[in-house]
Amino acid sequence: MGIYRLILKLRHRAYDSGRRPVAEADVPTVCVGNVTVGGTGKTPHTEMILRMLEGRRVAVLSRGYGRRTKGYLEVDPSGLAETYGDEPLQIARKFPSVRVAVDEDRVEGCSKLGACDLIVLDDAFQYRALKAGLNIVLVDYSRPVFKDSLLPFGRLRDLPERIFEADVLIVSKCPSELSDEQRAAFASGLKLSGYDPKTCCALTPSGRRIRLLFSRMVYGEPYMIFPEGDPAFACAEEAVAISGIARGDVFLRHVGESHKVVKAFSFRDHHPFSVADLRSFRMATVESPKAGIATTEKDAQRLLGCASLDASVRKRLYAIPVEAEFLSSAEKDLFSGLLEEFVERGVQAHDLL
């Protein structure tokens, strides 16, 4: 057994046995997580949940990966990614009525958020010190967890069998259409049995019932990031692509479907753009003066905070949003109903206190 696998097993055993304390929040909590290193679409699925629960008092709590600060902070949409992290800042800017906070201590973060109908815990499946009321775990369709390996040889940061602890398992980034036979085959690859396409249920190896849903990513209309941006560049024949996400190849392929990509800048996930990077972006506008500059919404949060970004780049820079959606309306209705029922039970329980 590898050292990393042994460490993970011992850690989970400590929590499961009660040797390490586990807390619960005073309000209902939904965890959106995975067992891999990035790339499954946690933020788009979190945003999907926020759209489904519009009108409810919903808050989002994140660790704030990549920020240079510590402790509990409520996200100011006019702030910087280095203060809050790019993903929490993106959510706060897109959903102004939602309270978004960051704290590496999720237990403390929940207590400080206070009264609300629901707290969405972004990327907290490995945070065992806090027990979520509803665990939603994402699995990338193109990277089945049981065909992957633990770090550093693969992209698994947790034991693949931990997916069986989910209440809802969502296979993300699927093709637009999957037959019932293809869904059942994928379920079997996840070591789930008895998949029923009508109820979207399957059984784990221990016989536990779990919801299994399938979603895809849909790109939206591009928009200019800066006020001085010229929308004509979003429609230009040529494009420069900038991505600092887990699956930059997918984004690059999408840009290439409607533009001739004349230059591509690919960085690691959450990459902090340097002065040299910004200089390279400016040089790209000199080399390809007719090209627009396409980036992701997440990268846009960091680029907005780059005070030294050249005017030629600001004029050309646009973001392409992406949303998660279920493959069928039945799956959407089922998931939305589960969320509403979960929130309503929590609200009623709180009213009885």
Structure explained in plain terms:
It contains eleven helices and 16 strands. It is α/β, with parallel strands linked by helices. It has two domains: 3-218 and 325-351, Rossmann fold, CATH 3.40.50; 221-320. The strands form two sheets. Strands 1, 2, 3, 4, 5, 6, 7, 8, 9, 10 and 16 form an eleven-stranded mixed β-sheet that branches. It is globular and about 60 Å long.
Task: Kindly summarize this structure in a few lines.
This protein is an alpha/beta fold.
Provide key terms for this protein.
single chain; 353 residues; alpha/beta; Rossmann fold; 2 domains; eleven-stranded mixed sheet; five-stranded mixed sheet; 11 helices; 16 strands; disordered C terminus
Q: Mean pLDDT across all residues, rounded? A: 95
How far do the termini sit from each other? Answer: 48 Å
Q: What is CATH's topology name of the largest domain? A: Rossmann fold
How much helical structure, as a percent, in the residues?
25-40%
Low-confidence stretches: 349-353
Percentage of residues in strands:
15-25%
Q: What form results from the Cα inertia axes?
A: globular
CATH architecture of the largest domain: 3-Layer(aba) Sandwich
Specify the oligomeric state: single chain
Number of helices, counting only DSSP H or I runs of 4 residues or more: 11
* Total number of distinct structural domains: 2
Which structural category fits the helices and strands? alpha/beta
Name the helix and strand elements from N-terminus to C-terminus, one letter apiece.
Answer: HEHEEHHEHEEEHEEEEEHEHEHHEEH
CA gyration radius, whole angstroms: 21 Å
